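ligand=nicotinamide-adenine-dinucleotide
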Amino acid sequence: MDVLSSTAIKVSNPINGTILYEIDDPSQEQIKAIYDRARAAQAKIQAMSIEQRIAEVDKIRDYVIQYESMILDAIIAETGKARTDAFAAEVFEVTDVIDVYKKLAPKTLKDRKVPQPIFLIEKKSRQFIEPLGTVLVITPWNFPFYQVIVPSLMSFLAGNATIVKPSEVTPLKPLWDHFFAHSGFMKDAIQVVTGGKETGANLIAMRPDKVHFTGSVGTGRKLMEACAKLLIPIDLELGGKDPAIIFDDVDIDRTANGIMWGAFTNAGQNCTGIERLYVQEGIYDQFVPYLVERTKRLRTSHPGRDTSSAEDCDVGAVTAPFQVRIIEEHIEDALAKGAKLLCGGIQEKGSHHIPPTIFENCDHTMKIASEETFGPTLAIMKFKTEEEVIRLANDSPYGLSASVWSKDVERGTRVARALKCGNVCVNNHMMNEANPYLPFGGVKDSGIGRFKGEDGLLAFCNLKSVLIDKQGKLIEPQWYPYTNSKYKLLSAVMHAWFGKSRNYVKFVKNVLPLDSIGNKEKFK
Ligand code: NAD
């Protein structure tokens, strides 16, 4: 692995504020060299069979299995996550994705035979599934290991060279250095380039063949503009304001546990974390106090945590200082607009250790119920009918993910279909993301494109359409010369074949002379 860095950005531990190390932005010359190496490596990757590429990816899996504990320590030091959050969503998920892609990639990346209409019966149509070239992956700070490894390995399996620019908040530089030194992974096939926003912009300016971006809506817009100027295709995995809908027939215990986890896992720093909760009026007075009582039992991160223990806390630290400010602003706005605080809230201004915070009496004028908070907060609202809650859930510029909870799975599925978003779970939350066969992505402001599954792998490919013909007839009926007799035959064939009722006799009578023209007629 080749980690390049050169303008000091301090990387700190959010649990205790210690500065861990500094990174610099690479120079233009260094960026050019990175692309040169990527393009040289890409030629080699393209020549490899899918089995050889899978053997390389197995090295990532072996590395993860061997160094699980060290990887978790590195992630926790830069993010402040609870150990189990880091394990489940980053380390475990990477091994699971690799396992699935070993099965999915050979099938998905095979050339395809494509059917053709009767008029092209003598020809063959194919789709060649080819690499794009060099793919640039730009990632956020909430899953710094997973977000780097997973798109990179998918891009690699598809035959591309990959350059990754991780978030400057959590670059994991020492970990990537160790990975490239010890995993034995193919040189220059994946290069991690640490640096800030400017590095991201400079990398785009070097014209990668595709950009795969995960991050905020604001940055996504800027990147799309930059890519539009250079006509670089870009996939955007952006933010969300996920609703969960609770109907009054649910099992309160399971549902409360599921909601609690969906809202507070990873300290709410999930693009698909539950931020809005709609509870039907018939169960509201039982459900909400139960949820709040359970939530108060969760252990919140604190500076003296023993991060080597899986029981050090349930709700980890908030990673980025600017995110602490956004969460505080949303909590203050909710209080000022009359929301009722049921638990949590700001304990110490500026602290990265924010307890799980629940509000009721919320409405969509409050930031906590309408803008992405990206922290351990939950805004509860009461509803009466299915129609009303569908309208409320869809009343958002975001459309990433959602969940519907009801013993009536038919109703759950009906509501899932009515929600304007890219992903939904019925009686669970976010677990669609645990299935790498399922594509993931958003609608509205939540993004463009699909990641994972077959669709996600094909997003890293050039789907080349190929028609193969013989050196047969001298001319095709629709080639020059254009003549009245050919035109009449072509028109008769269209009417005979595509008319309301198919006329086989008329078809044969006109298609045969049309066909034979090709053998007789030359373009003069
Ligand atoms: P961000 O948009 O601030 O930064 C993401 C990355 O973009 C970073 O690496 C940053 O350096 C880079 N960047 C910023 N400006 C740039 C520019 N002008 N040119 C090139 N690169 C630039 O996002 P963040 O704060 O790191 O992450 C949090 C956001 O990510 C949240 O909105 C969250 O919902 C979203 N997210 C989405 C998904 C998803 O799959 N949909 C997953 C995780 C996080």
